[in-house]
Amino acid sequence: MEIIERDVVIVGAGTAGLNAARDLRAAGLSVAVLEARDRVGGRTWTNTIDGAMLEIGGQWISPDQEALQELVTELGLETFSRYREGKSVYVAPDGTRSVYDGDMFPVSAQTGAEMQRMIGILDSLAADIGASEPWAHPRARELDTISLREWMSQTSDDEEACANIGHFLAGGMLTKPSHAFSVLQAVLMAASAGSFSNLVDENLLLDKRVVGGMQGVSLAIAAQLGADVVLDSPVRTLNWSGDGVSAVSDRVRVNARYAVMAVPPNLYSRVSFNPPLPRRQHQMHQHQSLGLVIKVHAVYETPFWREEGLSGTCFSPNLLVQEIYDNTNHGDTRGTLVAFVPDEKADAAFELDAAERRRVILADFATSLGAKALEPAVYYESDWGSEEWTRGAYAASYDLGGLHRYGAHQLTPVGPIYWASSDLAAEGYQHVDGAVRIGRATAAKIVARDAESRAV
Fold it and tell me: For a surface tag, which of 58, 158, 194, 201 has the fewest beta carbons within 10 Å of its beta carbon?
């Protein structure tokens, strides 16, 4: 086995790990990035399926995601705007299909007013609590020990309003049922995006894409790092002490002074730490888990919905397919739709065989966009839940009570070991922007600590 000597070893070549490595090397520290997969990018992955380029993982950039925008520009990558011209489609709980303009679903005046009232409450909570230390707020325990579903039921008796609000946070973001996570976790999600209003504004949140795919960000950084990125190299053991670490992977052994675990928390247990991590870490990691979502890609010979005056944006909280968007690639004459089947609906979908699942999912496409949606030229399902080195989507969140109990400790280094992933970010939480931010912030901490140690 090859033995490598470095200042820092980074476990995971996703956006967080690669940005940490880039900044560390720029500061004069040597690095090695060990990646279990045969590619870089982590939960960003652009792949060609049956001749169609598809964004298998994370892909969008919103205007407030300044860290990611600046990085994309710095790397010389181009972006383009998501197609959004035309009307949107809403399928109500009773199956009624409506075509509408604007941001608000075409619901009754009473339901619309209730949605706006609840959005206002969540906006106030997000502004008051913030994203950096939600666990430190005086109401943290209160809001962390009640599920979003229970809180909504106590806040409003309008079931459609509750379902629609829950849709944005449960199905659209945390990809867990609304009874499975707390109000505090929901508020963190909202605060990390600036407000809950931002989360319900799909024109803001799903603004731009990278020409050629979001994975291009990681590919560009990996090209700069060259041989310091080692693929097909899952880390099996991390030996550590006050003097440094030794990371043992399938291909290499890296001796270093510091380590960065740049993988989601649910994968920490895939590494044997020697000596074992402290009790607090063991307990905390058991209270963090990823959600589940099927990301469905359907490519058509033409974007037929545009010809019918539709944007391709569809919402249907009660159907299996809850969201659909126009995801046509830059310069492509074909039309691509992307859709999402989250949490318990994904459970139900996976109970079906592949052919029946495709039939049922496309039937929901047709409910929103008509019979032409039944016959895509390319159909593909992104299933991150069965991907060995991810095991869920989009990112990790705490179970009830976990955020206020453990959040203050989630980034605390253990000796020379640091933690960095979008799952632990404040601004940009669970997004590529958050991965950029936390990767760079982690690098800065190590650089400062290293400088201090050298000065002593």
Answer: 201
- The residue assigned the tokens 């052919």 is 355
Report the chain's terminal Cα–Cα distance, integer Å.
Answer: 35
Residue ranges at the known binding site for substrate: 340
Domain tally, the chain: 3
Q: What CATH number has the domain bearing residue 255?
A: 3.50.50.60
Give the model confidence (pLDDT) of 251-276 as tens digits. Answer: 999 999 999 999 999 999 999 999 99
Token reading at 326: 């126009």
Residues annotated as binding site for FAD?
A: 35-36, 235
The pLDDT tens digits of the residues spanning 119-158 come to: 999 999 999 999 999 999 999 999 999 999 999 999 999 9
Question: For the domain that residue 353 is a member of, what is the CATH number?
Answer: 3.90.660.10
Residues 269 and 308 in one domain: no
Class of residue 344 by CB neighbours under 10 A (exposed 0-12, middle 13-18, buried 19+)? middle
Phi and psi based region of residue 48 (left: phi greater than 0; alpha: psi -120 to 50; beta: remaining): beta
Strand order in the sheet with 79-81: 60-61, 208-210, 79-81
Beta strand 258-261 with 8-11: parallel, antiparallel or unpaired? parallel
Distance (Å, whole) CA 49 – CA 34? 27
Residue 393 belongs to a domain:
no
* Binding-site residue positions: 35-36, 235, 340
Contact 392, 266 (CB under 8 A): yes
DSSP string, 312-352: EEEE-TTSS--EEEE-PPTT-SSEEEEEEEEHHHHHHHHTS
- 182 and 246 housed in the same domain: no
> Residue 254 sits in which domain range?
2-43+214-277+414-455
Is the distance from CB of 216 to CB of 210 less than 8 angstroms?
yes
> For the chain, how big is the Rg over CA atoms in Å?
22
pTM exceeds 0.85, yes or no? yes
Q: Which residues pair with 314 in a beta bridge?
A: 89, 324
Which residues, including other chains, have CB under 8 Å from residue 102's CB and lie 6 or more apart?
A: none
Residues 375 and 335 in one domain: yes
The 10s digit of each residue's pLDDT in 383-415 is 999 999 999 999 999 999 999 999 999 999 999
